[in-house]
Amino acid sequence: MKIAIPVNEKSMDTSICISFGRTPYFMIYDTETKESQFLENVAATSQGGAGIAAAQALVDSGAKALLTPRCGENAAQVLTAAGMKIYKTMNDSVSDNINAFVEGKLSVLDEIHSGFHGHGGN
Amino acid sequence: MKIAVLSGKGGTGKTLVSVNLAAAADKALYIDCDVEEPNGYLFFKPEGVETEKISIRLPAVYEDRCNGCRKCVEFCKFNALAYVGNRLIVFDEVCHSCGGCMLVCPEKAIYERDKLIGEVQRGRSEKVTVITGILNTGEASGIPIIKRLLEAGDREESELTFIDCPPGSACIVMESIKEADYCILVAEPTLFGAHNLNMVHELVELFDKPYGVVLNKCMEGENPSETLCLEKGMKILGRIPFDKELGILNSNALISVRESAKYRQMFMELLQNLKEEVQHETVVNP
């Protein structure tokens, strides 16, 4: 099963990015082969709707779960429409969170924030 | 002549200045572009109000025609569309109503539906025509309402128009000042006030608009906004004192130039300064 994690750098020892929609990269990790790939988040620089476009890219990547500290409502709507599960990360370590996910210890993200749209300019 | 009245923050006195200047003029048009919380009408209490409902156009999908090619998703600069689970999702509040998705769809699977977002009201208060924009609560953008307000203003063929802008310096303010011939920046005598004055000053410079400053709530002692005006060479059109009587009139939703000879005099002078300044600007920078 492929899982996606927003990360700050394109390397295995990267930290998890605090933003979902504006993260520079997503790590796509395969829990069976234990291989990981990095997906550049082209939505990061978009004027608006970054979460929507990032979520679309993740759905297209074939990932079935997202491990993230936060997620906005528009992105969550896209992800859930695709049947993707959203889990809340416990710290900013990629390996800790992958291990916790594999062991079934991560909880489902239930605080979906309403986004920051329109604050400081529409 | 269109005069936009703006400020970097709320509560500095945009409405006080624009309402009283309009009331002090012989004949004027007052447009309230602060569509999220219009309050000029509370002072003018316009009569014979006519209302026009304002809608925007949003995309909708004929699902049987959509083949999932995603041309619309790729086209949308605002990422208002997603294609997931063999279905197109439209995010209404992200959409800017450009209609592009409908144009690029090769299957003609997208049509537009109207969504009511607010209204424009027009009425009279003595010699002032009052046009007010109202955005419904929860709507994402007031810009479509402001466009309609300014169009409605153009139809009045008024010689003197005051545009009461929303606070700040975001897109909604840019839309409000776009067609203005002159901008009045209203500022408070605080550090925060000076900071916000600086922001709108940058905005009017960027838009290459002639402008002048009205210093409101002036007290004894230091005025950081005035200091900023002197530093940057910003023209000061007038000063309004921090005055209890004026505050009471204003908080009772009364127009001070209609209630008191003293304030009538003060705003007449401000109007005169403004007219001379605008005339000067049009001679220097036609």
From TrEMBL, chain A:
Q: Which CDD domains does the record match to this protein?
A: MTH1175
Residue ranges annotated for the Dinitrogenase iron-molybdenum cofactor biosynthesis domain, each copy included: 15-102
Family matches, as InterPro entries: Di-Nase_FeMo-co_biosynth, DiNase_FeMo-co_biosyn_sf, MTH1175_dom
Pfam families from the UniProt entry: Nitro_FeMo-Co
Organism this protein belongs to: Anaerobium acetethylicum
Q: What is this protein called?
A: Predicted Fe-Mo cluster-binding protein, NifX family
From TrEMBL, chain B:
Entry superkingdom: Bacteria
Answer yes or no on keyword DNA repair: no
UniProt KW keywords = Iron, Iron-sulfur, Metal-binding
Molecular function (GO) terms for this protein are: iron-sulfur cluster binding; metal ion binding
Which Pfam families is this protein grouped with? Answer: CbiA, Fer4
Query: Is Metal-binding included in the keywords of this UniProt record?
Result: yes
Q: Which InterPro entries match?
A: 4Fe4S_Fe-S-bd, 4Fe4S_Fe_S_CS, CobQ/CobB/MinD/ParA_Nub-bd_dom, P-loop_NTPase
Query: What residue stretches are annotated with the 4Fe-4S ferredoxin-type domain?
Result: 57-86, 87-115
This protein's name? MinD superfamily P-loop ATPase, contains an inserted ferredoxin domain
Whose protein is this, by species?
A: Anaerobium acetethylicum
